[in-house]
Amino acid sequence: MSEIVSFVSSGPGDPDLLTMRAIKRLQAAEVVLYDDLSAGPILDLAAPEADLISVGKRAGRASPRQDHVSRLLVDHARSGLKVVRLKSGDSGMFGRLEEEITALREAGIGYEIVPGVTAPSAAAAAAGIPLTRRVNARRVQFVTGHDVTGALPESLNLAALADPQAVTSVFMARATFPQLAAKLIAAGLPPGTPALMAQGVSTPAQAFRRDTVAGLAAHLEGAAPDPAPTLILFGALAT
What is the pTM for the complete model shown? Predict the structure, then answer.
């Protein structure tokens, strides 16, 4: 197992938030397969002669099939090249890391995972608030706002998500949050629970909206699509 693929987490988009190991792997890479959200200034860290291949997926846009991405990883690694799979945020969070690892294992190819700053941590830091609060919020939970079809997942644990003493982070949340909010309020979450919508965290497009769960749901109901990556935090937030 001489070939090694490096899964490098690019964080929310600001190169300054990369780990030293991530930078070293990018600088040494001969092939970089990158997510759409990892494009931009982070790719400037790769060597000028590196082959940069876009394999990102974005809602509402044509995207490469997952089996095609996995095949590219295997083929480039078998050619003896230094391969980096650049993933947005932390590669272990809602990023189809497992499918790509499985493909490498089946091909007998080794890999390493370079962790990174995940979106909730970056959003809270940029907003100047903690993710936890002593006594009031001792638990943080991460959930995706849509399934493979783009709809709100049906198997969400609403009782856990409606816990007012937890801080909940909803990834890819913009389109389905009004529906989710209605379910949470029906499950007992107070409509006035603090909420924070974060878009384009750590990029020039960064924007925040501080609101309540009910207020944010009303704001997003029928809103036009927005391509900016969106994260919603709600619960016992120190907004």
Answer: 0.89
Spatial separation of the C-alpha atoms in residues 111 and 193, rounded to whole Å: 42
Phi, psi of 44 (to 5 degrees): -65, -15
Say yes or no to pLDDT of 1 above 80. Answer: no
Amino acid at residue number 210: R
* CATH, residue 134: 3.30.950.10
Q: Which residue has the higher pLDDT, 150 or 139?
A: 139
Please give the tally of structural domains in the chain.
2
Same domain, 19 and 98: yes
Print the domain residue range for 67.
4-114
Examine the residue annotation and report whether 57 is marked as an active-site residue of this protein: yes
- Write the pLDDT tens digit of every residue in 98-142: 999 999 999 999 999 999 999 999 999 999 999 988 878 889 999
Q: Which of 5, 14, 144 is nearest to 86 (CA)?
A: 5
Catalytic residue selected from 36, 57, 147, 183: 57
In this structure, what CATH number is given to the domain that contains residue 97? Answer: 3.40.1010.10
Indicate if 43 and 123 belong to the same structural domain. no
Q: Is 35 a catalytic residue?
A: yes
Given 14, 35, 163, 211, which residue is catalytic?
A: 35
